[in-house]
């Protein structure tokens, strides 16, 4: 009997209006119904800062006012906590960055950025390709590539309330992931899960768990799952982790989407629905939107405006026609595209009204439908060669 899998639907998102250029090694995070994008590399390092309004499918470049903002950054990290975006690492000028703590805060409410000052000599220095996650009221940074030193196994904690750094040192003789960069990390309950990356010049395929309560590492062994990877991305999805893309080197990005179940401690490779082709990407960003992507251990701002309405450009509906997937039949999923309010094209507006009427008939007059769970993949290598950054939407059919 074949194993039941969750098919997924991949759809390219057409840009609307002004959009950022395509890039890789950038940083993204979701906050308050928007996805924020900073820096990265095209043919040269970038320093621009953008906000993507998911409901309206619109990009806006942000003016970084305030006491200090980063210059060009690549392979940096960005996390959200209580209305602030915290950016760490990625500085290009290593001679300048050796004596600076590369940490910035952007206030999404005031739209102001500031440089977080060095507090003492034990603050971490600049690095690239590290991981950064949020657990409770702190940010945890692991590894990264430090100029003139190579891969690092430093493990740091930044307290958002006190703005103080502290180094995390496991017990002597205990196992640990070791130095690496280009890896991934995600938080589930009271643990951080770390996968792959580069150790020196060699890609890794090992899987590690850090317990915040026990202050220790342990390795997770598995028989089948992703290969050795660098430049991939992970997001938390319900009680599992989704891992996408990456590759065994910069010249061979993958299109594989894997799902790791924390309950069964097993991997499952997810297949795309027939007729959909996922992108091959490395050094991209994956951002989860919707209630199934919210971590219970992280303080999250409510996602205002994320409602399925006439201004929401994507709608997911179930088709009555089944499609074959191995030995089983799966219900198909289709993508509806809605118009943005104020569309000047009468034909598009009429089409929008018809689809809106159909949705109203299905759901009831005046009822706002919750945003479906979406995974947005932005940018990545290879570059698309088009005008504007590549954005892909992935939805899972949990049948």
What labels describe this entry?
single chain; 399 residues; mainly beta; 2 domains; 6% helix
How do the strands and helices of this protein lay out in sequence?
Elements: E1 8-12, E2 27-31, E3 34-41, E4 45-53, E5 58-61, E6 77-81, E7 84-88, H1 94-97, E8 103-107, E9 112-115, E10 131-135, E11 138-142, E12 145-146, E13 150-151, E14 155-159, E15 164-167, E16 184-188, E17 191-199, E18 202-211, E19 216-219, E20 233-237, E21 240-244, E22 257-261, E23 266-270, E24 285-289, E25 307-308, E26 314-325, E27 328-337, H2 346-363, E28 369-370, E29 374-378, E30 391-396
Antiparallel strand pairs: 1-30, 2-3, 3-4, 4-5, 6-7, 7-8, 8-9, 10-11, 11-14, 12-13, 14-15, 16-17, 17-18, 18-19, 20-21, 21-22, 22-23, 24-29, 25-28, 26-27, 29-30
- Count of folded domains: 2
Largest sheet: 4 strands, antiparallel
Number of strands: 30
| Main β-sheet, spatial strand arrangement | 1-30-29-24
Estimated helix fraction? under 10%
Q: Any idea what the CATH architecture of the largest domain is?
A: 6 Propeller
> Which CATH first-tier class of the largest domain would you pick?
Mainly Beta
Could you state the CATH homologous superfamily of the largest domain?
Kelch-type beta propeller
Helical segment tally?
Answer: 2
Question: What percent of residues are in strands?
Answer: 35-45%
Q: C-alpha Rg, in Å?
A: 21 Å
Straight-line distance between termini = 17 Å
């Amino acid at each position: 009997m074949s194993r039941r899998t969750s098919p997924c639907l991949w759809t390219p998102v057409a840009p609307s209006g002004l959009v950022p250029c395509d890039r890789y090694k950038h940083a993204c995070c979701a906050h308050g119904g928007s996805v924020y994008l900073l820096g990265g590399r095209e043919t040269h390092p970038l320093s621009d800062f953008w906000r993507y309004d998911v409901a309206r499918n619109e990009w806006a470049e942000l003016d970084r006012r305030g006491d200090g903002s980063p210059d060009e950054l690549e392979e940096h990290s960005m996390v959200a906590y209580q209305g602030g975006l915290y950016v760490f690492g990625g500085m290009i000028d290593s001679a300048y960055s050796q004596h600076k703590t590369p940490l910035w805060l952007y206030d999404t409410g005031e739209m102001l950025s500031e440089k977080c000052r060095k507090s003492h000599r034990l603050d971490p220095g600049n690095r690239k390709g590290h991981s950064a996650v949020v657990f409770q009221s702190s940010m945890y940074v692991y590894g990264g590539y430090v100029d003139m030193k190579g891969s690092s196994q430093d493990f740091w904690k930044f307290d958002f309330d006190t703005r103080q750094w502290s180094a995390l040192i496991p017990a002597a003789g205990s196992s640990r992931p070791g130095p690496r960069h280009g890896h991934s990390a995600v938080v589930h309950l009271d643990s951080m899960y770390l996968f792959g990356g580069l150790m020196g010049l060699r890609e890794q395929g090992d899987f590690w768990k850090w317990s915040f309560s026990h202050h220790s590492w342990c390795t997770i062994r598995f028989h089948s799952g992703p290969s050795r990877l660098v430049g991939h991305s992970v997001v938390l999805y319900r009680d599992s982790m989704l891992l996408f893309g990456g590759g065994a080197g910069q010249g061979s990005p993958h299109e594989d989407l894997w799902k790791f179940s924390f309950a069964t401690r097993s991997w499952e490779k997810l297949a795309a629905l027939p007729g959909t082709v996922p992108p091959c990407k490395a050094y991209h960003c994956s951002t989860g939107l919707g209630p199934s992507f919210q971590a219970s251990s992280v303080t999250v701002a409510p996602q205002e405006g994320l409602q399925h309405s006439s201004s929401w450009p994507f709608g997911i509906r179930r088709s009555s026609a089944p499609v074959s997937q191995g030995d089983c039949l799966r219900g198909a999923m289709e993508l509806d595209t809605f118009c943005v309010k104020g569309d000047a094209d009468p034909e598009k507006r009429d089409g929008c009204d018809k689809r809106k009427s159909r949705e109203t008939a299905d759901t009831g007059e005046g009822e706002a439908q919750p945003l479906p769970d979406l995974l947005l993949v932005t940018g990545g290598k290879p570059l698309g060669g088009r005008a504007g950054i590549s954005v892909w939407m992935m939805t899972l059919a949990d049948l």
